[in-house]
Design brief:
The chain is α/β, with parallel strands linked by helices and about 425 residues long. It is built from 14 helices and 18 strands. Helix 4 crosses helix 7 and helix 7 packs parallel to helix 8. The two termini are about 20 Å apart. The protein binds N-carbamoyl-L-aspartate (NCD) and zinc ion (ZN) (2 copies). One of its GO terms (cellular component) is cytoplasm.
């Protein structure tokens, strides 16, 4: 028995089209996409008024296993992802131990094989222990299944090491994804340095931390003529630099998180530590530039940077609490609420940013709904609304400043490799 999705709007990125179609799934494949398909013996999903999207692809998330299972596991992370419409997630290596050698990688892959209900693909560390001193064996990691390398969570302070890593990653042909924040400039800062940090007397992080690091890495990418992917850009200056670099032909791609395009440092006043994240929540002017960057293609992707933490961790004093916002299950709704409903972007743009482009950057054959391809699909309603509550979250990490916020856009079904892995 297969699945027949009736009367939904199918998005085709390459044709830039939205068409009313039926989609037939048999086994793990999309068998047929036609105007009218009838098959009584299949499970029928009525998608009238709904959009049928290629499953979302998150190029940047933290699932915490091994080592921090109290924050998230592969099982809970993949469930949360599925409920957010994601069928593919790339997970960062900052676990305990971190994914800096083949043995740790294989152990992780075994957990993924056992527990994940969607595609979860590992990213390997750039340096041993993510300490920024000595490179990992990038080639061996690649041969054993990493899709990219990153020391995310940690900047690569040594320019010499960064150059070496970029050369290696590019030679192999996998992305190097940077957490661009100069540690020295960050110092003991907790939130954006500006009016809110001043008002609340909380140590600030100067925007130069991000800007200076991105400047350095863009220079490197330009001089070496190599590819670079910048994680979670958040400042208007960084976006301007990346826009300029792209104009000059530098091979740079970048992502933005949903929290950085929807809220500002101002939420810290009411919500405190829950809004503590790297890079920090910024200002209205930064959001204006982020939206401009999303529209003009300077920003290639929306990535969640899903960073679940426990209540105990986040209830610590703001100086001691860890950085990070949990968000993989509401990312799509944030895009609908803050980008589509505010008429900055349309659903085709969102699919490009949340599925098609990340697939291209991570070099996987996904992000498109076409006959003969693996049935990774999200069926969504752009008009349905709901309030974010802890009890409707699958992630162990309830650390989101959006608790209590009413959002538009629901994921009604998620289908991964032909299996319904989530239904609302
Ligand atoms: N974004 C965060 O604030 N935290 C991330 C690390 C990271 O993405 O830098 C985490 O692992 O918790
Ligand atoms: Zn990071
Ligand atoms: Zn991250």
């Amino acid at each position: 028995m297969g699945i027949l999705i009736k009367n939904g709007y199918v998005i085709d990125i390459e044709e830039n089209s939205v068409k009313k179609r039926d989609v037939l799934i048999e086994g793990e494949l999309i068998k047929k996409i036609e105007e009218n398909i009838n098959f009584k013996e299949h499970e029928i999903i009525d998608a009238t008024g709904l959009y049928i999207l290629p499953g979302l692809v998150d190029m940047h998330a933290h699932f915490r296993e091994p080592g921090y299972e109290y924050k998230e596991t592969i099982k809970t992370g993949s469930l949360a992802a599925a409920s957010g419409g994601y069928t593919t997630v790339f997970i960062m290596p900052n676990t305990k131990p971190c994914i800096d050698n083949v043995q740790n990688l294989i152990r992780l892959k075994n957990i993924i094989d056992r527990d994940s209900i969607i595609n979860v693909y590992p990213i390997g560390a750039v340096s041993i222990g993510q300490k920024g001193k000595k490179l990992t064996d990038i080639k061996e990691l690649y041969k054993n299944g990493v899709y990219g390398i990153s020391d995310d969570g940690q900047p690569i302070m040594s320019e010499v090491l960064m150059e070496e890593a970029m050369k290696k990653a590019n030679k192999i042909g996998i992305p190097i994804m940077t957490h661009s924040e100069d540690k020295e400039i960050v110092g003991n800062g907790c939130i954006n340095k500006g009016k809110v940090s001043k008002e609340l007397g909380i140590s600030g992080i100067s925007r130069d931390a991000e800007n200076e690091m991105i400047k350095r890495d863009l220079k490197l990418a330009k001089r070496l003529n190599l590819k670079l992917h910048v994680c979670h850009v958040s400042t208007k200056e960084a976006i301007n630099m990346i826009r300029e670099a792209k104009k000059q032909g530098v091979h740079v791609t970048c992502e933005v998180t949903p929290h950085h395009f929807s809220i500002t440092e101002d939420v810290i006043r009411d919500k405190g530590t829950i809004g503590k994240v790297n890079p920090p929540l910024r200002t209205k002017e930064d959001i204006v530039e982020i939206i401009k960057g999303l529209k003009d293609g300077t920003i290639d992707a929306i990535a969640t940077d899903h960073a679940p933490h426990s209540k105990e961790d986040k209830e610590l004093d703001i100086q001691k609490a860890p950085f990070g916002i949990s968000g993989i299950e509401i990312a799509f709704s944030l895009a609908v609420t803050y980008l589509i409903k505010k008429e900055h972007l349309d659903i085709v743009d969102i699919v490009k940013l949340m599925s098609y482009n990340p697939s291209k950057i991570m070099r996987i054959d996904k992000g498109m709904i076409k006959e003969g391809s693996i049935a990774d699909i999200a069926i969504v309603d752009l008009n349905n609304q709901y309030v974010v509550t802890e009890s409707n979250m699958y992630s162990k990490g309830k650390n989101t400043p959006f608790l209590g916020t009413k959002l538009s856009g629901t994921v009604n079904y998620t289908i991964a490799s032909g299996n319904i892995v989530y239904r609302r």
